[in-house]
Structure formats: structure tokens, C-alpha cells
Amino acid sequence: MTPDLSIVVPLYNEAEGLPFFHANLSAAASAEAHARGLTMEIVYVDDGSRDGSAALAASLPVLGIDIQVVALSRNFGKEAALMAGLDHARGDAVMFMDGDGQHPPEMIPTFLRLWKDEGYDVAYAVKADRSDEAASRRLFVRAFYKLLNFGAATTIPEDAADFRILSPRAAAALRRMPERNRFFKGLSSWIGFRQIAVPYRPAPRAHGSTSWSFLRLLGLSMEALTSFSPAPLRLAAAFGAVLAGLALFYGSWIVVERLVWGIPLPGYPSIVVGLMVIGGTQLLVMGLMGEYVARILSEIKARPVYYVADHVLNRAPAEATGHPLTGQPISGQPFAGPGHPSALASRAEP
């Protein structure tokens, strides 16, 4: 039986708080499923955790709705984990949320109302404010979104979270995206359809600490920029044009000084400074171009985005969902993404 909604939850070293999170998520999802007469499933995607999160997720009690556990062979990154969840989701509609407990399951009824009752295809959570974060981080996030949306055809909302629901046609559109370097927030905005922002306040982490250091956030930002936006190349070209204009002006000024006022030409210092500025600019632009070339190389090589080590499906009892209780371990297969034969097979496995 195909669920109406799949709730995809990526996990990375979340074993300590997973039982509590699962109980809250199952209670909220089951209550809403019974109230609306829907069938749901939870898809836990373990992204190479080192604390036994995958084994713990597979042993979690089935509390009214089916549970899938997809354990990746190593840590491939959150975007790959989201893609694995999308590939394995059996439901027509898909909801994404983090497994650290900061995305409140109590918002599930709000998302379902916006989808089922008001006809929105994408409803995404947006942080109401960042007053609890450091000023440097707020400045970094603001600058990142300004750069990301510079000259973009579609605007990616600032402070939008991965916590969102996609209607069946929005989820189908996202599955058709063939690229391997993915940025789900950008792709979710790019597909269009009716979208709405839902303000929320992230709950404080009850267990553990975030794995997103500044360097990891910087790496993710570069990944998002180079896979979704041409803004860095455009800014590099604009900077080069400005630098060339300044050099022309400076050269003309030197000529005027020598011919009109008889001032001797500057020597060694001006030459060295000019070479350093021009050389640094060239290296910067070459580095940006190298990032884009690396993305092109990744697409050309067409390696699978992730590998699945273990895959388990635990069905809810018959009295809860109308079908028998079974636990089905499924062997892992490599998946290249939506449209790849093995990826299609993975969605049909259960």
C-alpha cells in the first residue's frame, strides 16, 4: 500500500536523542494520519553515523506508521542523504525534517493543512529570527543569501530551513532533477508551483551538539553557490572590469603627471603592488573557475551520489494501518539519482 506522505529524516550521530524524537514524531504523525484518514511512513536515512544511529533506528518501535531505515555506506553529506530519502520514499507527497529535534513535529498539522486544504505545493519553514545566534553567523548567512540570489532567476528565501512539505507533483518534479551536486533549498524554489513560508522557532537541542562547524557551513555554502548560482563568476568578471578600469585610469594619470607637471614616474613599489593586485585577482578568478570545473567533472563522471549499506522496512500493525506487521531487510544498491534504473527500483522495492 502506497503511503500518502513520507517523512524523510536524515540522521548523523543522533543516537542519544533519537528515541525521544521518534516518539514525538510518531505521535504527531499518527494523530494527524488518523484525523485525516491518511497513511504515512517515516524514512530515516543514516548518513554514515559513528554512534550506532542506524541500528538504533532499525530497532525503534513501530508506533502506528511504517518505518524505513536506509543506512548509507559512509558519510556522503546531508544533500546526498536527502536525495536517498527522496529516492526511497514510497509516498506521493514528501516531508523533510532534521533528526536533531529542532524541527518541531507539532508543525506537521500546519503543513498538511497548507497542502491538503489550501492547495500549496511547497510549504517551507523559515526561522522567525536569529537573535539567539552570534552576530558573525547572522552576517555570514545574510551575505550568503545576497550572493546566492544575485542575478538568479528564482529567489531562494533567506533563513529557509530544509523542514518542508512537497505535494505529489512538487515531489515528482524534484525527483526528475538529474544533477548530482544538489542544493535542495534551491531546487525546491526553482521548481515553482504554489509556495508559502511558515515562520517557526527551532527548538533547542536536547542532546548532543551540532556537527555544523563554520568550516562545514562554508563548504556547504560554496557547494550551493557553484551548483546553483553563477553569481561568483559574474562578480569576478565585474571585479576584473573594475580593476581594468582603475588600471587604465592610473596609467593615464601617470602619463599626465609626467608630460604636464614633469613628475618622475613611480618605480619599483608601484610595479610590485600592481603585480600583486593583478596576480591575486587572477588566482581568485582561476580558483572560482576551478570550483565550477570540479562540478562539471563530477557530473561527467556520473558516479552514484550514495551507496546503501542496509535497508529495512518495518510495517505498522494491521489494526493501525490495515496491513500486516512485517520487517523486511533489503540489501543495499547503488543509486545514481532520480531517473536512474536502480533508483527507480529502490522506490519500488518495498
TrEMBL record:
Residues 6-166 form the Glycosyltransferase 2-like domain. It is a multi-pass membrane protein. The chain crosses the membrane at residues 235-256, 268-294. Its main location: membrane. Residues 323-350 are annotated as: Disordered. Its EC number is 2.4.-.-. Keywords: Glycosyltransferase, Membrane, Transferase, Transmembrane, Transmembrane helix. This is Glycosyltransferase family 2 protein. Coiled coil: none annotated. GO terms for molecular function: glycosyltransferase activity. PANTHER family: PROPHAGE BACTOPRENOL GLUCOSYL TRANSFERASE HOMOLOG, UNDECAPRENYL-PHOSPHATE 4-DEOXY-4-FORMAMIDO-L-ARABINOSE TRANSFERASE-RELATED.
